[in-house]
Amino acid sequence: MFKYPINSSILKVISILFVLTFCLSKTYSQEELKVVDSLKRELKKLNALPENINNDTIKLNILEALIENIYEDEVWGKYNAEYIRISKKLLKNEDKKIKRKAQLSFALGLNDEGLLESNRGNYKIAEQHYLKSLKILTLLNEEENLAMALNNIGYNYKAQGNLVKALDYYLQSLKIRETINDESGIATSLNNIGLIYDAQRNQKLAKEYFLRCIKILEKHGDKYQISGTLNNLANIYLKELYFNKAIELYIRSKVLQQSIGDKNGEAYTYVNLGTVYINMKKYNESINYFKKGLNIFTSIGLNEGLAWTYINLGQIHLLLKNYKESNRYLDSASFFAYKINQPELIQRAEFFNYQLDSTLGKYNGAFEHYKKYIFYRDSITNNETEKKNIQLQLNYEFEKKEAVLKTQQHKDRLITEEKSKKQQLIIWITVITLILVFSLSVFILRTLNLTKKQKAIIEAQKDFAEQKQKETLDSIYYAKRIQHCMLPNEKHLQKKINELKNQHT
């Protein structure tokens, strides 16, 4: 049963319209296959022209699309080698934009070269490529691609059976992806972390991660990643003996893989279907599926897939008591497992070799195979590894919660500061208002007092004037009375005048 790791895809923006259209979709319809063919023709035309900056830049764009959307290692690997060559050439250019583009392309090319070497079992060489890529991407501050490189380093360690380091790099990748809200990348990380727990026989936690992954992927319609995670989830149902559910998921995965031309994935799905039928004791159906997978793996030359298929064919022929056939397949399985030095494959090959030799009475050989089986099994699932993995997960969850807490605390502090500012503003407004009211009150009071004083003065002046007027009038009246007293009245005077007249007459 094969666990389906997902390597981060590189989203590229292509300047030519048909290249851009091609990159935005991962489906391989007939129209898209025509687009791939037209890309190849365009590349051929450019190769016939003299090399210059403009032509080399267009070549990089076309090569990016071809590398991104072709699944066979041997095919896209050739394009990647050319991609690296042109990138290195453009690194010497003085134009800053072209140089940055060349640096990024070179880093991505190294990353893909690491993936190729990892698939071939050359893990140390793969690691060197990954680390060089990681260094450049860090300097360029390319967070999305940096997360991809960290994920692929994790995949490289997982293939070597170093689950602690694998989980560490997967969590680093996941942390960046959550920070930049890269949902497709988050799904990739969740899938691969699920595989770590699956390898440690923690099916409950593995299933939880696979379901979270699928939920995100279905929202985005990423057929390539959905097909891989469906395989992994089906493996869990197989271990839980829900055979029909496992078959249903494998079939869904196969349909998606055929629709996008993913030969590698389709071959692994056939092998996994064969494993279900072994458990259901339907051996003929099982052998048919294994051979379908074997034919594809042989045609594309994928050593890991060949090892998985030979192990399963060795197991089923052991069950059928076809010991000669079983021995032949298990020898081939051991050859490829040791060639790519993958502990999980080695321990499975050694286990069935131990069973075969025990059945045949070859106890010395059985003992040697059993010792190797225990050694490689424990290198993957020993208690210390489990403790370290749990600690890494706890550290990550703690850091994640701490980051959320800090964010919330920051928000709370801002809200508190805002409230404090508002309260201070209200206090100042209140104080200023009170001062203004007090000042206005004082002003009004002073004005009233002044008015009263002025009114009192006016009243006093009025009284004084009236008193003076009265005194003046009284003086006049008094003088008049005196005058009247001193002067005879008019009648008396007239009488005297008349008397005088009479005397003269």
Description:
By secondary structure, the chain is mainly alpha-helical. It has a domain of 162 residues: Serine Threonine Protein Phosphatase 5, Tetratricopeptide repeat (Alpha Horseshoe). The protein is 86% helix and 0% strand. The chain is built from 20 helices and no strands. The protein is rod-shaped. The N and C termini lie far apart (180 Å). About 4% of the residues have low confidence.
Q: Mind describing the biggest β-sheet?
A: none
How would you describe the shape? rod-shaped
Rg, Cα atoms, Å: 49 Å
What amount of the residues lies in strands?
Answer: under 5%
Reported CATH architecture of the domain at 1-162: Alpha Horseshoe
Spans of 5+ residues with little confidence (pLDDT < 50)? Answer: 8-29
Quaternary state of this entry equals single chain
* Percent of residues in helices: over 70%
* CATH class assignment of the domain at 1-162: Mainly Alpha
Tally of extended strands? Answer: 0
Number of helices: 20
CATH topology of the domain at 1-162: Serine Threonine Protein Phosphatase 5, Tetratricopeptide repeat
The average pLDDT score comes to 80
Jot down its keywords:
505 residues; 20 helices; Serine Threonine Protein Phosphatase 5, Tetratricopeptide repeat; mainly alpha; single chain
Task: Compose a concise summary of this entry.
By secondary structure, this protein is mainly α. About 85% of the residues lie in helices and about 0% in strands.
